[in-house]
Amino acid sequence: MTSVNEGTGEPGRPLAPVPPGERGATRIADRVVAKVAAQAAREALGVLPTRAAAPHANVVVRHAGTPTPEERYAASIRVHLELDYPTDIGARCRAVRRRVAERVGALVGMDVPEVAVQVERLHLAPGHGVAKGRTR
Q1: Nearest alpha-carbon partner for 75 in 64, 86, 88
Q2: Are the CB atoms for 49 and 123 separated by under 8 Å?
Q3: Per residue in 11-60, pLDDT tens?
């Protein structure tokens, strides 16, 4: 297989590497990172209570340190979710933090130094401690 020089169309000459400053940049919108984080939270939680809203996330993206030719970005993420009750709230929140950090890092390529999980509501599991009729 022969290569073609980009400028002249001459076969056989390899392409010269493009310097890092001339390659351009890819910018990923905060809302895209938020969608990735929300999906990762859903994956970590598994089955949600029937009345629970799907997790959603707020994201702030900033430069991580000094800009270099290979700029790194960091995403601070806050995930809002609802859980069933009774459950181990701490363990479920840890699982969400870990999954969100892993998925955002892998799919978006950003550092995730902070994932805050905010539990908005607890839903009592059906049939668990629910009194039927009047209670005195």
Answers
A1: 64
A2: yes
A3: 666 788 888 777 777 788 999 999 999 999 999 998 887 788 999 999 99
The Cα–Cα gap between 39 and 95 comes to: 13
- What letter would DSSP give residue 21? G
Contacting residues for 100 by C-beta, under 8 A, at least 6 apart: 37, 40, 41, 44, 57, 77, 79, 112, 115
Asked if 104 contacts 112 with a C-beta cutoff of 8 angstroms, the reply is: yes
Question: Taking the model in full, what pTM does it have?
Answer: 0.73
Residues 6 or more apart whose CB falls under 8 angstroms from that of 103 comprise 36, 37, 39, 40, 43
